[in-house]
Amino acid sequence: MRNDDRSMTICELNEQVYEAELGQCVGVTGYHHWFFLRALADAFNYEFRAFAVDSGGERLVVAPLVFRRLGPVSMVNFTPVCPFGPVLRGEALRAGRMTELLKELRPVLRRHLTVAARWDFLPDLRVKPEDLTAPGYAAGTWENYVLPATKSVDDCWKAMSAGRRQSIRKTEALGVVVRDSTPEEITQWFPEQMTALHKKYGGVPLYSGAAVRSMVQQLASHPRMLWRTACGEDGTRYAMTASIISETRLCGWQMVGPSVRSMSPHTLLHWDSIKWASARELDYDMGGVPNEGIRVMKHSLGGESEAIVGAFQVRPAVAYKAAARLRKWKPIARKWDH
Questions:
Q1: What is the pTM of this model?
Q2: Angle, in degrees to the nearest 10, between helices 162-173 and 265-279
Q3: What confidence tens digit (pLDDT) does each residue in 283-322 have?
Q4: Which of 145, 203, 240, 315 is most solvent-facing, going by the fewest CB within 10 Å?
């Protein structure tokens, strides 16, 4: 360690310190919070640890790292959720030091034999793809849709397409209401529907049934989780949504439930989330756009596109390629290539 004033140190954080630091940082989403990352890591048999980079007694960056062990090597932050890359304190943000600070995490990555890492940054962090040009980095942007807290409920309603407004009116006229989910719905109905949803789209599901059940059991009663159910007058459950409450955003994690003819309980749940977030001066974060249909849907709900900067760090490239051949990994999929 250097002895000058600019020397930097890395320290590991416990839950209490980590959560306190998040409250001082910029670029935080619901997915950054300890309880959620711990549940995710436990469900997938990952290892979750949190670190900070300090300089001259000043905390600059907080970095949650989720290690996925693959034989002797690991990958970092390759999970079904995003974004939860490093976040900055105000002074480091103003100085534009994210690229510099990522380099300071290398000793941690080396100790874990990490051959590939993924970083995602909200627009608040002012990171640009061209800032990440060091060898081993591939950077770009991907779309995320948000309804900002600065919009009133009336403005959000007017921003929706006429078809979305009509579907909400029609669904409400059929007696469908949104209420807080019951413990039984959270721990039983939600996991069943989430598993069915991922099977519907074929391929390798992002969440196995066991992983869903494990996560839901840990998240069910946490005060930062918002569980809401759309149901009929006779008690029929049509759809559910699970969201994470952060300091500035309500992040929609999962919305589940089968398609229903002649009504749109899913749109009604989005409208409920919009109103809930607006009443608490939170942005409503609807997430990314895995396909064009989802983009059209979120746009029709009045969502505004924001560019998330994503970066993949492969280092050293020779070690990654050797591990990829040994483990038969698929090539890393980059959202901005699609």
A1: 0.90
A2: 100
A3: 999 999 888 999 999 999 999 999 999 999 887 665 556 5
A4: 203
